[in-house]
Design goal:
single chain; Enolase-like, domain 1; TIM Barrel; 7-stranded parallel sheet; 15 strands; binds 2-succinylbenzoate; binds magnesium ion
Length: 374
């Protein structure tokens, strides 16, 4: 495959409701899309990627503007340079940008677009290529921090009515045991888990142990991104299974976390680990080690959501992911919307991602576009 040009598109999309985590309140999403114009034997396709970086430096050391700049200045030129020597493939991409350090979310977005282009040309779906063994995946929902327990119970009740099969509550100091207790009291024995997004330290261990009374599926990333050792120590002091998100930035980090007892469960986000191909490798090693994984979310548009459903169809994804319907975040998605059916989301079956941006929606939300020609 030859890449003729790459477009970097920034969108601005309102969220249906503010989303508050331990690190910030988001009312809008600024997705960064990568469009690869590719050709093989005179056939042309567009391949689409989505960068998961948030607008600000709150979840990761990558953010919207850094990802766009790294794509523009380093990653896209590296692909153009590599294709002077040999045809571009999604499999070869990681090697061709290995000399560019870090910036996994930016890399993941370009790799996703190359993979999509390649699969569209080959007539193969993301699910088939990644190794999905199901046609749909169970759908969980991540519920932000609310202003009051009443408001939280209202939201959780709505999501359960819609059919979500698992509830994840965002927590932070001052909003942890009480909301968990209230949700248990009101809704009983539902599949329930919490996500702290690094808001605690080991000094909070005794407090966090109070969560052990509520039969949670897991606690996600209570401590810092670099705190694999500390998570192992905390895991020994809690009954609730320890799940890592922010700390798992690579296959090596995943192996370390598993071997050191810091992760009984892993949240896999392709963007955070450098792409869908690396995500599959983490799935494989976790499965080998008997560690369940689930697919995290980053308020993706239908493009990222399509790829996430495919990934979550792999057999080691034994827990419901943060793969909600499009309507959980967006009144209008940029693709045909993903919908809940009996608590599940279908994996698109068409070539590549199996969905594409609707031109009108792209136009409506488009903020900025840059085309780089080979
Ligand atoms: O920690 O899982 C997280 C959203 C943005 C940044 C970090 C996280 C989240 C979510 C998932 O909780 C939201 C979703 O896409 O469903
Ligand atoms: Mg998380």
């Amino acid at each position: 495959m030859r890449v003729r040009a790459v477009e970097l598109l920034t969108l601005r999309m309102p969220l249906v409701t503010p989303f508050t985590t331990s690190f910030s309140t988001q009312t809008e999403r600024f997705p960064l899309l990568v469009r690869v114009l590719a050709e093989t034997d005179g056939r042309e396709v567009d391949g689409w990627g989505e960068c998961v970086a948030l607008t600000d430096l709150v979840y990761s050391s990558e953010y919207l503007d850094s990802a766009r700049e790294v794509l523009r200045r380093y990653l896209v030129p590296a692909v153009f340079a590599a294709q002077a020597r040999e045809a571009v493939t999604a499999d070869g991409f990681a090697e061709s940008v290995r000399h560019i350090l870090g910036h996994r979310m930016a890399k993941a977005a370009l790799e996703m677009a190359l993979l999509d282009a390649e699969l569209r040309l080959a007539g193969v779906s993301f699910g088939e290529r990644l190794g999905a063994t199901t046609a749909s995946v169970p759908s969980g929902v991540s519920v932000g921090i609310h202003d009051s327990i009443d408001a939280l119970l209202g939201s959780v009740g709505d999501y359960l009515d819609q059919g979500y099969v698992r509830i994840k509550l965002k927590i932070r100091p001052g909003w942890d045991v009480e909301p968990v207790r209230a949700v248990r009291d009101r809704f009983g024995d539902i599949p329930l888990q919490v996500d702290a997004n690094t808001a605690y330290t080991l000094a909070d261990a005794e407090h966090l142990r109070l969560l052990d009374a509520y039969d949670l599926l897991l606690i996600e990333q209570p401590l810092g991104e670099d705190d694999i050792r500390e998570h192992a120590l905390l895991a020994r002091r809690m009954r609730t299974p320890m799940c890592l998100d922010e700390s798992i930035v690579s296959t090596d980090a995943a192996r370390d976390a598993i071997e050191r007892g810091a992760a009984a469960i892993i949240n896999i986000k392709a963007g955070r680990v450098g792409g869908y191909l690396a995500a599959v490798r983490i799935h494989d090693l976790a499965r080998e080690a008997g560690v369940p994984v689930w697919c995290g979310g980053m308020l993706e548009t239908g493009l990222g959501r399509a790829a996430n459903t495919a990934l979550a169809g792999l057999p080691g994804f034994t827990l419901p992911g943060d793969i909600s319907a499009s309507a959980r975040f967006f009144a209008q998605d940029i693709t045909e919307p993903f919908v809940l059916q009996d608590g599940r989301i279908r994996i698109p079956a068409g070539p590549g991602l199996g969905v594409e941006p609707l031109p009108d929606a792209l136009e409506e939300f488009s903020q900025h576009a840059l085309t780089l020609e080979a």
